[in-house]
Model the fold of this input.
Amino acid sequence: MIKEFNYKTHGTCSTNIKIVYDSETKIIKDVEFTRGCPGNTLGVATLCKNHQLEEIRDLLKGIKCGAKSTSCPNELSKAIDEILKNN
Done:
């Protein structure tokens, strides 16, 4: 079943991440960032498509943006954690 999940980010230029995924296969179908650095967020979103939630979470977890304690990719990993906790 295809599901959509929205996550309000914290500490980044992006304000929201929308993830469309298959709840049975746990494959990401689409990722869309609201705001943020367009090239970077589009690049991350494109690379996530057709990969498993766990794989992307593990790759992006802990990435920082400059002196910030988080980043758009790290916030995506947190969003995926929320999805996995609730499925």
The mean pLDDT is 97.
